[in-house]
Each structure stands twice: as structure tokens, then as C-alpha cells.
Write a structure and sequence with these properties.
The protein is α/β, with parallel strands linked by helices. The chain has twelve helices and ten strands.
Length: 308
């Protein structure tokens, strides 16, 4: 969100973070990030005040019959009922890919004509670094993100141990996931080929160097929307180890190997496949240019202008 604000402001658009305590705030459009209940009051009162509403929505994929049933039940008597109600006040919505656009239209009944697909933003420093010499296939697997059960670093680590491959984990333990972090640390303590870097500054030279030097980028998460770490890895033409879930099926993720996130054997076999395959001269995915800050900013400016 903050990266998008920064990119949009560079185009000359007057965009500021909302201060709910500022009584004399004057603005034409309220842009909210996320279809969460925390945005409901802001959207409701902004609409009552005659403001236009833009919402960037990150939605859960709905694949199985059970997930469809849970959604429909929730839309009548639980959380999703408020989400559907919130969308009644929204003028334009942005989602990260075509599948999310379909979900927003089909399940949330939001008008398809008012939906724009705008992917996540990747800092320009990644694109610049990818054009430099020195990007090569390294010897270790890289995973980046908050350490938590959903992102599944523990099973990934077990799969690396089984294959005898090095793993670098970059990320802090997510609040409420202390026990999961302890289990991961116990595994690392007995396996020196696993390195855990508990946080690096985003878009830093150190982080970028890890992307340049790794053999592949892995994120066998149980649930995601459009993981930025996979976009960052794709910019460097790295093979991607991804869970066989809906979020893996995106036009930006080339050279991917799909695995069952609940199976250490499947993850282990996926790792073996990546190291056995040849990725000496992969073709650059030019669709990733859509993730550049300038492209994102112009896309949102078009959304803002289309409201009036």
C-alpha cells in the first residue's frame, strides 16, 4: 500500500494517507486497501459525505465445493455479508489478476465493468538489478515472507533437509505464530544448511543480492493472493517452487514447479526437479513490466479519472 502511494504521488496526483481525526480533511476520492471490516466505517461515512470510493481488494480463492458453501453461508449470516454490503458503496475496484476479478464479479456481485486488474508493485530496484550482470543459478533455495503456518516454511525446510539442499529463510515470526517459529528454530539448530535471517529491509541491496544468488525462490503457502516474493523471483528469471493452489496460476509466474504444500515428500520431489532441470537461459517474462511502479501508478490514475 505504501509503495503504491509513493508511486502514485510521483505522477503528480495529490494523494495522502487518511487521518480520521482531521475534521477539515478535504478530498474527492477515498481509496481503501482491503475488503476488511476495518474499512467499513470509513467507506460508509465517506459515501454519506458524497465522496467517490475506490477499493483495492485481495480476495480468497474459491475452488472447492466446501469453500463455495462456506462463502454463501457467510454472505448471508456472517463476515462476508458485511463485505457484500461494503461493496455497494464502492464506485471502482481493483484486483491483482483475472481470477480475482471473476471472484469479485461472480461471488460478490460487483459490476464487471467497474473492476480493473492491477498487479502488485515491485520496486524498480529489482528490475534494475535483474538487468545487471551477475544473475546466476546459485546453490540454495530462498524463501521470503513472514514466518507462519500459512506460508509453510517448516515443511519447506523439511523438504530441503530431505534433499540435502541449502535453504535461506528471510522473515520475522508473525505475531501469534511464536510456537511455529520455535518449531522451525529447533529444526534449524540441528541442520546447519538452513540459514534464518530474521528480517531484512524491504528492497535493500542485501535482499536483492539473495534473489540474484539463489537457485530458486520457494513459497509453498497454503493460501496467498499474489505473493510479491514470487514476482521478485520471477524478475530474476528464477525457478519458482509454488503450492498447487489457485494463486500459482498467474501469467507472471514462469518456470514454476507445483507441489502439495501438506506433503514433505512432494516438496522434496519438487526441489529435486528444480535442481535437475536446466534453466540456463530462460526467456524474460515481459508481462512483469506491468508490476513496475510507473505502470501501477498510471493504472490507478486511470481508475481515479474514470470516476468523474
Amino acid at each position: 500500500m505504501l509503495s503504491n502511494i509513493n508511486a502514485i504521488s510521483k505522477t503528480g496526483t495529490d494523494i495522502v494517507k487518511l487521518n480520521t481525526w482531521q475534521r477539515d480533511a478535504d478530498f474527492d476520492i477515498l481509496h481503501c486497501w482491503g475488503l476488511g471490516l476495518g474499512n467499513f466505517e470509513n467507506i460508509f461515512w465517506a459515501k454519506r459525505s458524497g465522496k467517490k470510493i475506490v477499493l483495492t481488494a485481495l480476495l480468497n480463492y474459491i475452488d472447492t465445493t466446501a469453500e463455495k458453501v462456506r462463502f454463501y453461508l457467510s454472505s448471508f449470516m456472517h463476515r462476508e455479508r458485511f463485505s457484500v454490503k461494503m461493496l455497494e458503496y464502492v464506485d471502482k475496484a481493483a484486483v491483482v489478476n483475472d481470477l480475482q476479478a471473476e471472484i469479485l464479479s461472480r461471488y460478490y456481485r460487483f459490476p464487471e465493468r467497474d473492476i480493473t486488474v492491477i498487479p502488485h508493485l515491485v520496486d524498480d530496484r529489482f528490475f534494475i538489478a535483474a538487468q545487471e550482470n551477475g544473475v546466476s543459478k546459485g546453490e540454495y533455495i530462498l524463501t521470503v515472507g513472514n514466518v507462519c503456518h500459512r506460508k509453510n516454511q517448516l515443511n519447506l525446510a523439511e523438504g530441503c533437509v530431505k534433499q540435502g539442499k541449502k535453504l535461506v529463510i528471510i522473515g520475522k515470526v508473525l505475531d501469534g505464530e511464536v510456537a511455529y517459529g520455535q518449531r522451525l528454530q529447533e529444526l534449524i539448530d540441528s541442520n546447519p544448511d538452513i540459514t534464518w535471517i530474521k528480517g531484512l529491509e524491504e528492497n535493500s541491496d542485501s535482499l536483492i543480492q539473495h534473489y540474484k544468488s539463489c537457485a530458486c525462490v520457494a513459497l509453498p503457502s497454503y493460501s496467498e493472493q499474489q505473493p510479491i516474493s514470487l514476482l521478485e523471483g520471477a524478475i530474476f528469471n528464477k525457478p519458482l517452487l509454488i503450492a498447487d493452489k489457485s494463486y500459482a496460476n498467474q501469467k507472471y509466474y514462469d518456470n514454476k514447479v507445483l507441489v502439495n504444500p501438506a506433503s514433505i515428500d512432494s516438496i522434496s520431489n519438487g526441489i529435486k526437479t528444480i535442481f535437475d532441470e536446466k534453466y540456463d537461459d530462460p526467456k524474460r517474462n515481459h508481462l512483469l513490466d506491468e508490476c513496475r511502479g510507473q505502470h501501477i501508478a498510471m493504472s490507478y490514475n486511470e481508475v481515479y479519472q474514470s470516476i468523474f
